[in-house]
Design goal:
There is one protein chain. It contains one helix and two strands. Helix content is 15%, strand content 10%. The longest helix has 12 residues. 5% of the residues are buried. It has one domain. It has 79 residues and is of the alpha+beta class. The protein has a two-stranded parallel ribbon with strand order 1-2.
Length: 79
């Protein structure tokens, strides 16, 4: 069992962890300790393929604008 529950990672300061959110753009409110969070907004195969091919394994840059407040108005999700 990890700190805060079985599904919340407690090792985010010891290991490099990337939180990838598909169909849950407010995931950062639940896992605020993750230092890097990527919102994909949907789980369609072409979206997941583009995320992996262009951004996680290649030189691609994230250039989109966040249409919602992914930080959920919480101060601790920004640190």
């Amino acid at each position: 069992m990890s700190k805060g529950g079985g599904e919340i990672p407690w090792y985010v300061h010891e290991l490099p962890v990337i939180g990838i959110s598909v169909n849950a753009p407010t995931m950062l409110a639940d896992v605020s300790t993750v230092r890097t969070c990527i919102n994909a907004y949907d789980s369609r195969p072409h979206t997941v393929d583009a995320l992996v091919e262009k951004h996680l394994t290649g030189p691609g840059a994230f250039t989109g604008k966040d249409p919602i407040d992914s930080f959920c108005g919480m101060w601790d999700t920004r640190i």
